[in-house]
Amino acid sequence: MNLELLQKLTQTPGTSGYEDEIRGVIYQEVTPLADEIRIDPLGSLVAYRKGRGANNGHSKKMILAAHMDEIGVMVTHVEEKGYLRFTGIGGLRAIHHIGGRVRFPDGTLGVIYVEHRDDATQSPNLNHLYVDVGATKREEVPFGVGTPGVFVGPLFQQGNHLISKAMDDRIGCYLLIEVLRQLKNPPHDIFFVFTTQEEITLSGARTSAYRIDPDIAIAVDVTGTGDTPKSLPMDVKLGQGPAIKIKDGGMIAHPQVRDMLIAAAEKASIPYQLEILLGGTTDAMAMQLVRAGVPSGCLSIPCRYIHSPSEIVDIADVEQAIQVLLTAIT
Ligand code: CO
Ligand code: ZN
Q1: Global pTM?
Q2: CA of 119 to the centre of ligand 2 (A)
Q3: Which contacts qualify for 108-112: CB closer than 8 Å, 24 or more apart?
């Protein structure tokens, strides 16, 4: 595991719609590894590797996608006493962020906390939260409405586990970069797409896929687990191998892609899990719907506490997922 790379990937800010800085980091990494690089109008980074031509010199076009953007907050209002109100960029649950911290583009650190509520029997929503940046009046806050902030959650290794903010989906970006690094002479043309705005609209994946017009598309993203106290029923556990998606809240994986990933895992003798995620979806949902339709699926990294500042993945799951993907595309 290249922890130095994962450190850069997880800690560089890049909420949906504000991916410039993280794209810069990824651009540096993939430039020496790709035959061609371009940035699409909505900001997705496409690194292309030419195939050697599989059938009679004809290569198929394949997309591997991971999203660069991360969840965060956006300032909606600065109160007279200098406290900030905010909305979520991506899906936030208030209870996962009380006592957490956010960092704004100018470096300002904010503490997220919750108003006193006389009736505390209901769980709070985002409207009950505010950010304390240490200001005592509105004029002291050096930024205002529309400013994005990212959660603070340093990368930490504990045994086989890696804990950080933004594992969703910088671990997918890590995986794509490592596959690109280890890939030799692929039979097909492969487009490594680092997408924008997955957490909001899936728009980066949708538009990049339209332009590429692929024969097949695979998203690499995190998925939930069913191995924590009173979790939703789910057959995926941390550390039991990468998960191959059957279904999530937005799509059913195309059988061709699902079976291709299963065959790859079996060929490489890598343990895998079958994933049915009850809520949420990935870039694969958008990619399957472009043009006349694209067979699409998803290779998932099991992850605990998704969309919190302490998302946990297992090192073996990540390393095995790299091998499954390499086997599937070569
Ligand atoms: Co997400
Ligand atoms: Zn994601």
Answers
A1: 0.97
A2: 34
A3: 108/133, 108/142, 108/143, 109/133, 109/152, 110/84, 110/149, 112/73
